[in-house]
Amino acid sequence: MAFRELKKKILALLQADDPRTAMEKIAAMPPRQAVNPLFGLLYHGDMRVRWQAVTALGVVVARLADRDPESARVIMRRLMWNLNDESGGIGWGSPEAMGEIMARSEHMAVEYSRILISYLDPHGNYLEHPGLQTGALWAVARLAQTRPALTRDAVPFLADHLVAPRPQLRALAALAAAAMATSELRTQLKALRTDGGTITLYWNGRFEQMSISAIAVAALAAIDS
Questions:
Q1: What is the DSSP letter of 193?
Q2: Please, what sign has the CA dihedral across residues 128, 131, 136, 141?
Q3: Which domain holds residue 50?
Q4: Total tally of structural domains belonging to the chain
Q5: Which end of the chain is more exposed for a tag (fewer CB within 10 A), N or C?
Q6: Which of 74, 154, 87 is nearest to 114 (CA)?
Q7: Dihedral sign, CA of 8, 10, 11, 13?
Q8: Would you state the pLDDT for residue 90?
Q9: CATH code where residue 117 lies
Q10: Cβ within 8 Å of residue 40, ≥6 positions away
Q11: Residue ranges of the chain with pLDDT lower than 50?
């Protein structure tokens, strides 16, 4: 199938009202053919399409990693290159795609989790752009959902984000803390129990409106349990 035709087909699937069927059909495509259109859709004007593309890349690359790890590594390196200043672009969606892939592929998570966390580290590969920093934090929270042990090194950076001025950063840091259930962040999370911020996030495959105080309470409950 020609690239343009394949991209139109994938776009139509991502715009449909049945995400589960869309992911099943995209997963059935040859992974190497599906990847390039999905990369392009990370920049789509519709936020829903962009996030569905993140999920689809996770599905496709995790499947590829099981059969052809080196090809999956090439894709991970491409995402990392997109976040490099020398790439000439901004790298929208790249941190999120990395996090989604690693959440679904233990192989990729073991190899690349430290690099992902380094994007939050002011002394590492810190992403200066606020949008990319938000994406990196979302990616760490997503990875923490399935492989919390691999995100332990992010705890000091989560502490900083739990007191950030931007409510989206506080919410994402609290989601990561909830998944990690780390007692080291208890003090910051207690302070968020009275946070009045409410944000909309793409989480668990859908857009959800979340209260920061409710996330903090859930995180504290996870720690206590």
A1: G
A2: positive
A3: 3-224
A4: 1
A5: C
A6: 154
A7: positive
A8: 81
A9: 1.25.10.10
A10: 7
A11: none
DSSP tag of 204: T
Q: Could you tell me the two tokens for 205?
A: 């495959």
Can you tell me the distance from the alpha carbon of 18 to that of 15, in angstroms, rounded to the nearest whole number?
A: 9
User: Quick one: tokens of 37?
Assistant: 């259109």
Tell me the pLDDT tens digit for each residue of 117-174: 999 999 999 999 999 999 999 999 999 999 999 999 999 999 999 999 999 999 999 9
CA 27, CA 43: separation in Å to the nearest integer? Answer: 20
CA distance 87 to 149: 31
Separation of alpha carbons 136 and 130, rounded Å:
10
CA distance 154 to 152: 5
Q: How far is CA 26 from CA 42, 201, 207, in A?
A: 15, 24, 21
